[in-house]
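I'll show a record.
***
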Amino acid sequence: MQNFNADKLIKLALAEDITSGDISTEAVMKEYKKGTVSLICKQSGVICGLWVFERVFKLLDEATTIKFFAKDGDRVQKGQHIAEVTGDMRVLLSGERTALNYLQRMSGIATYTAEVAALLKGSKTKLLDTRKTTPNMRLFEKYAVKTGGGNNHRYNLSDGVMLKDNHIGAAGGVKQAVAAAREYCSFVHKIEVEVENLEMCREAVEAGADIIMLDNMSVEDMKKAVAMINGRAQTECSGNVTRENIKNIIDTGVDFVSSGALTHSAPILDLSLKNLRPAEEK
């Protein structure tokens, strides 16, 4: 996969790391020399972001070549040889950290998502991410969630209507907020309402919400809310959902469960570029 819409973000990341040259590399490598370096997995998990990893080096030097021994979504093992990167040694040295930062972060998210999604296997509940992403990393982090077996919620504020507590407060209530959204938005947009208790849930159902998010409610109240909604809207639960507590939600009967932890709390997958050596010129 290659997404050129990501190029401007990758270029910003490179500019952050190389403002006016790489003085360490320039000190030891004053002219072109072709080399090869190995990408090694130091921790088992789900690999994700290989196309971003490649793009970092290609943006520095289009002549860089990479031979991959795995693809995004593959489960990789500690010690596994993932790729060989060949090109100008100066490029390999200067691009190393940025390329690894993307790959480790995305692979960590994919790995964590796969673990959480596995806990929902066999249920009707689908796993969603949120907008709780690292600034300028949303494109990459949401791709990683998909790679790990999760699903994407709205991409940004232009992508869907979600009336949260402050929207409801600003509008004067659930009924007023839903009515205002219906009047303003195109008919193609579904309207999601966040509710915090059973009374708000009843108001959202009566107002005709398309999706009702049960936010930080107890398991028992979520079961009551799903029964109250009775198929008149899709249901989503949210609020501090993690790998450790998601099992408690399965029996509530909600359609979706959204978890900010997929992107804001996933640890990186440890990967490394090792054994830089000269490569034969052809």
DSSP finds ten helices and twelve strands in the chain. Residues 14 and 98 are 7 Å apart (CA to CA).
